Amino acid sequence: MRILLVDDNSTNLKLLTKLVAKLDHCEALPFSSPDAVLSALPDLDFDIAVIDYQMPVYNGVELYTEIVRFEKYAQIPVIFVTGDRDMTTRMAALDAGAIDFLTKPVDPVEFHARMHNIVSLSRARRQLADQAEWLRREVERAVGELREREQEIIYRLTLAANYKDPDVARHTLRVAAYSEAIAIELGLPSNFCHDLKLAAPMHDVGKVAMPDTVLLKQGRLTEAEFRQMQAHAQIGSDILGRSHSSLLQLASEIAVSHHERWDGQGYPNRLAGTDIPISGRIVCLADNFDALTTERPYKPAWSFERTIEHIVGRAGTQFDPECVAAFQRALPRIQAIMEQDRLEKAEEAARAMKAAGDRVA
């Protein structure tokens, strides 16, 4: 236990140093002036402070006020030594944070008794802080393990949902990355942005309930088929919504809301404006951007520029205007995501060709 001693009187300082030496497992850190203490901060490590009240330049309260400007010293107990029995002086010390007083001349027996109690209190406080830190780390580790399991569940569900069409699997990952980029530009909390990227790939999980004749149709859907396909939003939400996992609950929210429109003309619940969860508004835009910029059986891929113009033109009708503005700010990051996806797709194709050649050989 390290005890800071500050007293401009050398005789008093020597006495205090000797008295500290008699305490079990305690080390004195003597200073003869407030300036010397302040010069040593914040590298000075101590557990208790014993400070003389009457000193030149800085009195004890003024010195302690400067010390506790550093957060690391905020909870350290301080004892003031004073020959002044005036209540005003003692109230000033208490207001500054004093937990006890020693009256000059310091009586060794009284010093030992008071310091023994304060040292015990300080040790108990340190032990409690250590236990709290241990508990914090254990909770953090447990939450981390739980989050890893949740991520694994989402990953496996995404694989299952997209098993019939590998191109759809790439689509879901791009939508997730675009969604995170937009959320970041909206200034949303980093934890939410990260969770959105994890949950967004599940936005079309309800399509597992769609018949293959509709899901894998090479061409435009009929009106009846389109109405049938619309059911995937609510089905996806129902699949995910009963989970206690916060990630799966977010995925459920996205599934049911990513086809809603800002003007209320979307589905399945015809929500409008801010009644649509922000997660759904973001993924709606990201999903549309990816659908337009990629080739589909019924249409060629649109150019990057044409797609941007289309989305900006629908701000306030199909899309949340703030999300559109964030999307525009995120375009450099979105372009980088697209380029990375193209490289990965090309590498996959090259590996597939090599594997096919190896089988033939």
Automatic annotation (TrEMBL):
<feature type="domain" description="HD">
    <location>
        <begin position="168"/>
        <end position="292"/>
    </location>
</feature>
<dbReference type="InterPro" id="IPR003607">
    <property type="entry name" value="HD/PDEase_dom"/>
</dbReference>
<dbReference type="Pfam" id="PF13487">
    <property type="entry name" value="HD_5"/>
</dbReference>
<dbReference type="InterPro" id="IPR006674">
    <property type="entry name" value="HD_domain"/>
</dbReference>
<dbReference type="InterPro" id="IPR011006">
    <property type="entry name" value="CheY-like_superfamily"/>
</dbReference>
<dbReference type="InterPro" id="IPR001789">
    <property type="entry name" value="Sig_transdc_resp-reg_receiver"/>
</dbReference>
<feature type="coiled-coil region">
    <location>
        <begin position="125"/>
        <end position="152"/>
    </location>
</feature>
<dbReference type="Pfam" id="PF00072">
    <property type="entry name" value="Response_reg"/>
</dbReference>
<dbReference type="GO" id="GO:0000160">
    <property type="term" value="P:phosphorelay signal transduction system"/>
</dbReference>
<feature type="domain" description="Response regulatory">
    <location>
        <begin position="2"/>
        <end position="119"/>
    </location>
</feature>
<feature type="domain" description="HD-GYP">
    <location>
        <begin position="146"/>
        <end position="343"/>
    </location>
</feature>
<dbReference type="GO" id="GO:0008081">
    <property type="term" value="F:phosphoric diester hydrolase activity"/>
</dbReference>
<protein>
    <submittedName>
        <fullName>Response regulator</fullName>
    </submittedName>
</protein>
<dbReference type="InterPro" id="IPR037522">
    <property type="entry name" value="HD_GYP_dom"/>
</dbReference>
<feature type="modified residue" description="4-aspartylphosphate">
    <location>
        <position position="52"/>
    </location>
</feature>
<keyword id="KW-0597">Phosphoprotein</keyword>
<keyword id="KW-0175">Coiled coil</keyword>
<dbReference type="InterPro" id="IPR052020">
    <property type="entry name" value="Cyclic_di-GMP/3'3'-cGAMP_PDE"/>
</dbReference>
